[in-house]
Amino acid sequence: MTGASPTQPGRTHLICGTYDVTVANILDIETAMLPTTPFEVGDSIAPTLSIMPGVPAQVTYTVTHVAADGDTTARTFSGTANRFGWWDGGGEVWTFQRGGEYRVDVDARYTDSNGNLWAGRLRFGSAVATPDAPLVAHGRRGSDGLPEISRPWMFERDFVYDEDASAPHMHFPYSPATSYGGRSGYTRSGRTREMRERRW
Q: pTM of the prediction?
């Protein structure tokens, strides 16, 4: 395939390569873990999932881990979901032994009594942190669509969003032991929300 895909705002992404295409009815895959969850060394992934609609699909669940030095390990779990679409990975787990990054690839396929193929795929990944890492990450104070970082005390009505900003989404707290609290209400001009950051 060779081509291009236009996007907003006015960008173009080139597409070039050879791709495997599966034509099937869609199976929705929901893993027991939240996709893109970050882990620490010693944590484990239980390769469990639900398939919707609930059918006894054939499942392959592959975990690939790349360590900081580039060493790559992978393991594939496979089996058949029950008639309700639940698969528990045979009770097995993948335990992270080293820091780095991981990727999960899930494939589910089912052929119904009329010969129709149902299929679903899912891919996600994240980091595997080492204990006592020297890097401390902070969330961004405030909300999406803001051109600058908000002050600790804020009202949503005070925010000035970028023109292409989507609905406001508050980020994770910036500092340790920080909490967000507030209240929502309505005025003649519309809905307002008071947000306050508190550091203990």
A: 0.65
Q: Are 18 and 107 in contact (CB under 8 A)?
A: no
* Angstrom distances, CA of residue 47 to CA of 35, 36, 124: 12, 14, 13
For residue 57, give the nearest of 81, 32, 31, 77 by alpha carbon: 81
Q: Would you state the structure tokens that stand for residue 141, as one six-digit string? A: 């104070």
Whole-angstrom Cα distance, residue 162 to residue 177?
A: 29
Q: Distance between alpha carbon 77 and the CA centroid of its chain, in Å? A: 20
Burial (0-12, 13-18, 19+ Cβ within 10 Å), 85? buried
Q: List, for residues 152-161, the tens digit of each pLDDT value.
A: 666 656 665 5
CB 73 within 8 A of CB 98: no
What would the pLDDT profile of 98-120 be if each residue is shown by its tens digit?
999 999 999 999 999 999 999 99
- Two tokens at 9? 């705002």
- Rounded-to-integer distance, Cα 199 and Cα 45, Å: 33
SS3 37: coil
